[in-house]
From TrEMBL:
<keyword id="KW-0479">Metal-binding</keyword>
<feature type="binding site">
    <location>
        <position position="251"/>
    </location>
    <ligand>
        <name>substrate</name>
    </ligand>
</feature>
<comment type="pathway">
    <text>Pyrimidine metabolism; UMP biosynthesis via de novo pathway; (S)-dihydroorotate from bicarbonate: step 3/3.</text>
</comment>
<protein>
    <recommendedName>
        <fullName>Dihydroorotase</fullName>
        <ecNumber>3.5.2.3</ecNumber>
    </recommendedName>
</protein>
<feature type="binding site" description="via carbamate group">
    <location>
        <position position="99"/>
    </location>
    <ligand>
        <name>Zn(2+) 1</name>
    </ligand>
</feature>
<dbReference type="GO" id="GO:0008270">
    <property type="term" value="F:zinc ion binding"/>
</dbReference>
<comment type="function">
    <text>Catalyzes the reversible cyclization of carbamoyl aspartate to dihydroorotate.</text>
</comment>
<dbReference type="InterPro" id="IPR032466">
    <property type="entry name" value="Metal_Hydrolase"/>
</dbReference>
<feature type="binding site">
    <location>
        <position position="136"/>
    </location>
    <ligand>
        <name>Zn(2+) 2</name>
    </ligand>
</feature>
<feature type="binding site">
    <location>
        <position position="13"/>
    </location>
    <ligand>
        <name>Zn(2+) 1</name>
    </ligand>
</feature>
<keyword id="KW-0378">Hydrolase</keyword>
<dbReference type="InterPro" id="IPR004721">
    <property type="entry name" value="DHOdimr"/>
</dbReference>
<feature type="modified residue" description="N6-carboxylysine">
    <location>
        <position position="99"/>
    </location>
</feature>
<dbReference type="GO" id="GO:0006207">
    <property type="term" value="P:'de novo' pyrimidine nucleobase biosynthetic process"/>
</dbReference>
<keyword id="KW-0862">Zinc</keyword>
<feature type="binding site">
    <location>
        <position position="174"/>
    </location>
    <ligand>
        <name>Zn(2+) 2</name>
    </ligand>
</feature>
<comment type="similarity">
    <text>Belongs to the metallo-dependent hydrolases superfamily. DHOase family. Class II DHOase subfamily.</text>
</comment>
Length: 346
């Protein structure tokens, strides 16, 4: 196969940041993707419907002329989130999900939830109105090994929340373990899971062996090879509950190549090419569109995009920029570490 045409994909987990960074990274996504679920972890976070409406306006204002893109907004769940505000934001069509960050779990998550009893009312309202909860699924307990935090989160937090809130629709964001795949696979259709591009490609050796590679460091951190293989099997299975959320997360290089480097891989630029490579390797090209363009939209109750994109495979490896310039410093584009022969041609 040397060419494949898909419905235009959606990225169901994306960080666009704000200001100069937003302006620089937005075209990288909008070039290939029609829509994206926009993460609310700005400083300060997107907490209210009003914040989300203002952020949406800033995103649309940053979109280059001639590009089409629909930001799907989310709210950042805090212990002070007002259920009525959430309900109004959902009813108006503005907000498509609420994001749960356990306090301190990742970049800009300090306002996240510590006491889950305090958000019970919001979660019950969300279950009633069918608004999905997107979950960063890692415990923040420093006694738990960082490679175990996802599995422990499922047992200690996720499963209890779901049992206590029947009908709550949940997306396990960026799952990184076989435990995550197994848990998601065993649930009903009120549960889905996103998988990133980079977690299909790297395991923890890529970060730590042969010198530390800060551009492969993200949260949840990449795990052992067996987990990467479980993610590949899930992503390429065609199962509707697994869909793409790149978690493309730009940080200026100066903050990645640092004594205390930021977590995040920036994959917006080459994600579709990398996914074509992965799906071809797995003999699953016929399921690429399901993963990138159909299942996510279906879970969020959105129509599939009518527009199409075409990917082409060439003998000579495709070239992608190593970095993009932003008004906030350069950002390194994710390097898979192998030649990629696919690229989006139109
Ligand atoms: Zn994220």
């Amino acid at each position: 196969m040397t060419q494949i045409t898909l419905r235009r994909p959606d990225d169901m987990h994306l960080h666009l940041r704000d200001g100069a960074m937003l302006k620089a990274v937005l075209p990288e996504t909008a070039r290939h993707f029609a829509r994206a679920i926009i993460m609310p972890n700005l400083v300060p976070p997107v907490v209210t419907a009003r914040d989300a409406a203002a952020y949406r306006e800033r995103i649309l204002a940053a979109l280059p002329e001639g590009m089409a893109f629909e930001p799907l907004m989310t709210l950042y769940l805090t212990e002070a989130t007002d259920p009525a505000d959430v309900a109004v934001a959902h009813a108006s069509g503005l907000v498509k999900a609420v994001k749960l960050y356990p306090a301190g779990a990742t970049t800009n998550s300090a306002s996240g939830v510590r006491d889950f009893d305090k958000v019970r009312g919001v979660l019950e309202t969300m279950a009633e109105i069918g608004l999905p909860l997107c979950v960063h699924g890692e415990v923040t307990d420093s006694a738990i090994d960082i490679f175990d935090r996802e599995a422990v989160f499922i047992d200690r937090v996720l499963d209890p929340i779901r049992r206590a809130t029947p009908g709550l629709r949940v997306v396990m964001e960026h799952i990184t373990t076989k435990d995550g795949v197994d848990y998601a696979s065993a649930q009903g259709d009120d549960l889905a899971a996103t998988i990133t591009t980079h977690h299909l490609i790297i395991n923890r050796n890529h970060i730590l062996a042969g010198g530390i590679k800060p551009h492969y460091y993200c949260l949840p951190v990449a795990k052992r090879e067996e987990h990467r293989l479980a993610l590949r099997a899930a992503a390429t299975s065609g199962a509707a509950r697994f869909f793409l959320g790149t978690d493309s997360a730009p940080h200026p290089d100066a903050l990645k190549e640092h004594a205390c480097g930021c977590a995040g891989c920036f994959t917006a630029t080459n994600t579709m090419a990398l996914l074509a490579h992965v799906f071809e390797e797995e003999g699953a090209m016929d399921r690429l569109e399901t993963f990138t363009s159909l299942s996510g939209a279906a879970f969020y109750g959105l129509p599939a995009n009518e527009d199409r994109i075409t990917l082409e495979k060439t003998d000579r490896p495709a070239s992608f920029p190593a970095k993009i310039d932003t008004g906030a410093g350069t950002v390194t584009v994710f390097d898979p570490g192998f030649p990629v022969h696919w690229s989006v041609s139109c």
